[in-house]
Design brief:
By secondary structure, this protein is mainly α. The chain is built from 16 helices and 2 strands. The structure holds heme C (HEC) (2 copies). The site of one heme C has 24 residues, from helix 7, helix 8 and helix 9.
């Protein structure tokens, strides 16, 4: 089995044209229409890999190893060979993607906005759904850094890490990626309490095309990350005898090309498998029906107790009264990638999710230019507002509690019995309707205040 990419890849033009296109598209976004558009390389991740973000040693944050321009260029060329361009998407062959994503759908979602109908009409859309409806927030490459992004809180999702919050698939294990049905639900409902709108008004086939395209951008983004890591591994290989820090991942047109592409395929397979699952895609978890009486006053009362017990530990983040004031120094995975793991130092009690007094070295114009958004902490949800981003059906809340919210500190609780989890669902759904003075006295025996 050979990766069917050599023709596309070797057909690439010279590097100068490619680089200047990247720059044009970076600054004009949708203005790429007249030029063939290119995806911007994930410079933010290159930077994160090179600098191994570490806020504990900010002044020592110097990259010992950096990728050469030729190595970054090589990653871009491999990526274009595999996935095509924003105007002409491609599915790499031989890794099980054709059975899972439809190139025809991708072509409807990709490309500049064009209509088949009469001039000025918005019906009969031929291509460009993604750039019309999504790119101003999610960015052409799905980097979550479209022109509107910096003004939004929370920020639009950066798909390239392949992590998603709201899904009914397994919390862990090989097939925890969202299913197509999960993405459909997100597009139908939007994400309540955020700027992510509902796309219910679109015809079903258009939503289907967009779902495939989001998955395509995610797989593309994850592949790019894997290539960047592999390129970095080469660049840091400084052993005198066999190491070659200038080594390219794929030497196009040279004897080693086939072997190099075989290596690329090895990187691609583990990215694709958790999504495609042999062509059938990931499947929704089977959640048993809620037990009779799950929302009775007794059950709510049990939920209230659990909320404060270490087994569930909800209060430590969501606060004693459930308004989300238990922890204000939490960050999501997209932010941690650039902050490093010692996030404690960056913690503050800023308003509106801004980190108070965030030191200069955490964020500067250089980072902004490569698509890193200003770090903000993620607040545990205020459970008294009755605003649920992942949906308000009891089963949605059940899944959030037992499956967590991927990419955020909201954990998947595996210690609760089913009945206990349903009691917590009942309690959570009841919280907006009960007076904030409850509980009247702190349940001292459960260690409230010690925060353990
Ligand atoms: C006005 C800005 C905006 C537009 C337009 C927009 N989104 Fe979003 N989108 C967001 C924000 C903000 C989030 C993150 C919400 C969060 O983190 O809770 C998001 C999240 C998502 C997610 C991730 C859901 C998850 O479970 O993590 C998907 C998928 C998504 N959007 C798809 C789309 C698609 C497809 C389109 C176009 C049809 C689109 N969005 C248009 C703002 C937008
Ligand atoms: C380590 C901190 C932490 C703990 C412990 C925690 N949460 Fe959360 N929770 C969060 C954060 C952060 C969010 C917001 C995530 C996001 O969407 O960005 C959240 C979101 C939620 C949501 C909103 C879901 C939605 O669709 O909007 C619910 C409901 C919730 N938590 C309930 C609970 C319950 C019940 C418990 C105890 C079993 C719990 N949480 C434990 C941090 C925590």
């Amino acid at each position: 089995m050979k990766l069917q990419l050599s023709t596309e890849i070797t057909g690439l033009r010279n590097n100068g044209v490619f680089a200047s296109l990247l720059v044009t598209c970076l600054f004009t976004l949708i203005g790429c229409d007249s030029n063939p558009a290119s995806f911007q390389v994930n410079e933010a991740y290159i930077r994160a890999v090179e600098y191994k973000a570490d806020v504990t040693k900010p002044l020592m944050r110097e990259a010992e190893t950096q990728l050469s321009t030729a190595q970054i260029q090589n990653v871009s060329e491999i990526m274009e060979g595999l996935f095509g361009t924003p105007d002409e998407p491609n599915l790499p062959g031989g890794v099980g993607l054709e059975d899972f994503l439809s190139l025809r759908k991708l072509k409807i979602a990709a490309g500049p906005v064009t209509y088949t109908g009469e001039a000025g009409s918005t019906s009969g859309l031929e291509s460009g759904l993604y750039r019309r409806h999504c790119a101003h927030c999610h960015g052409v490459s799905g980097d979550g850094h479209g022109p509107t992004a910096q003004f939004l809180n929370p920020y639009p999702r950066d798909y390239r890490m392949g992590q998603f919050k709201f899904k009914l698939t397994d919390a862990d294990g090989a097939y925890k990626k969202p299913s197509k049905a999960d993405f459909h639900r997100t597009l139908m409902q939007g994400i309540a309490g955020t700027s992510m709108p509902s796309f219910r008004v679109l015809p079903e086939p258009e939503r289907e095309a967009l779902v495939d395209y989001v998955i395509y951008l995610s797989i593309r983004g994850q592949t790019e990350r894997a290539l960047i890591e592999a390129a970095y591994f080469n660049a840091s290989d400084k052993q005198e005898d066999q190491g070659n820090p200038q080594k390219l991942l794929v030497n196009f047109g040279e004897a080693s090309q086939d072997q190099d592409l075989e290596f690329v395929k090895e990187l691609l397979v583990p990215v694709v498998l958790p999504w495609a699952n042999g062509g059938q895609g990931t499947v929704q978890r089977t959640i048993e029906e809620a037990p009779v009486g799950w929302d009775s006053p007794e059950s709510i009362e049990l939920g209230r107790k659990l909320f404060y017990q270490s087994k569930a530990n909800c209060y430590s983040c969501h606060g004693r009264t459930g308004i989300g004031d238990g922890q204000n120094n939490l960050f999501d995975n997209w932010t941690l990638e650039h902050l490093g793991n010692a996030q404690g130092e960056a913690a503050g009690s800023g308003e509106d999710g801004e980190i108070a007094g965030i030191p200069e070295y955490f964020y500067n114009s250089e980072l902004a230019q490569i698509g890193v958004v200003k770090p903000r902490n993620v607040k545990p949800r205020n459970l008294r507002l009755g605003n649920y981003r992942g949906g308000r059906r009891p089963i949605d809340i059940y899944q959030r509690i037992t499956g967590g919210i991927e990419g955020t500190p909201m954990p998947a609780n595996t210690k609760l019995t089913q009945a206990e989890a349903w009691s917590l669902v009942a309690y959570v759904l009841n919280l907006p309707y009960e007076p904030a003075s409850r509980p009247k006295t702190a349940p001292v025996f459960q260690g409230v205040g010690s925060n353990k």
